[in-house]
Amino acid sequence: MSRSFPSPRLDSPDAIAVHLEHLVRLDPRLALVRERAGLVMPRIAEPGFAGIVRIICGQQLSVASANAIWGRFAAIDGALDPMGYLGLEEAVVRASGFSAGKFTTVRTIATAIANGELELSRLEDLPPEEAVAYLTAHKGIGQWTAEVYLMFCAGHQDVFPAGDLALQKAMVHGLGIEALPRIGQYRNIASAWAPHRAAAALLFWRYYAVLKSREGVVA
């Protein structure tokens, strides 16, 4: 993981801009994407148990729905601590809007943390591939969850969640390519953007938001 930029995390527009300059040099097609996207802002979340639970909370939900559910969940006494969560009744958690599957997933993760099997603090210093492998070795944590956690919570600069549907749509439109049938094909395209792939993901998420809100080009 490269540490040669103004911040070890993509935690300011200026830090992101440095990465984007490198990206445009690596792939000139991104110049127009960057121009249309406008200012790319950082997306930083709390690390640790609360951070990974928030990512799981938001899976397959709109931003508005996820935020509403998270607000109710976070207000539950003990919900943001692994041991506290393990002491909660399922009905209490599900009343906040969690599905049965998400309740069980978070319980599995809380158990692993409480038992010392999952140490999220280790992730900042692991190379991205090792960090993803470490997370996904634990039941309930998939590739997308691992990569988004590494980007937003652990500050990794070279992670690209290629399974994200919004990123895929933005890449298709922004790069002028056909929709691809396999996640690995998007991942292969993004491999050319190393070691700046997290900034590329932020860029394409912003590009997708612009397309959706201003032009209605993507659904």
Task: Tell me the major beta sheet.
Answer: none
SS element count, helices: 12
- In N-to-C order, the SSE pattern is HHHHHHHHHHHH
| Tally of individual domains | 2
DSSP, total strands: 0
**From the coordinates shown, what is the CATH architecture of the largest domain?**
Orthogonal Bundle
Low-pLDDT parts are 1-8
User: What is the percentage of strand-forming residues?
Assistant: under 5%
Radius of gyration: 18 Å
- Large-scale geometry: globular
CATH class of the largest domain: Mainly Alpha
Oligomer status: single chain
CATH topology description of the largest domain = Endonuclease III, domain 1
Structural class by SSE content: mainly alpha
CATH superfamily of the largest domain: Hypothetical protein, domain 2
Average pLDDT number: 91
Domain HhH-GPD: 57-208
Pfam family, one: HhH-GPD
Keywords: DNA damage, DNA repair
GO biological process, one term: base-excision repair, AP site formation
Features of the shown structure:
Endonuclease Iii, domain 2; globular; 219 residues; Endonuclease III, domain 1; mainly alpha
Architecture overview:
With 219 residues, the protein is mostly helical. The chain folds into 2 domains: 13-43 and 159-215, Endonuclease Iii, domain 2, CATH 1.10.1670.40; 49-152, Hypothetical protein, domain 2 (Endonuclease III, domain 1, Orthogonal Bundle). The chain contains 12 helices and no strands. Helix 2 packs across helix 12 (197-215), helix 3 runs antiparallel to helix 7 and helix 10 (165-175) crosses helix 12. It is globular, with a radius of gyration of 18 Å.
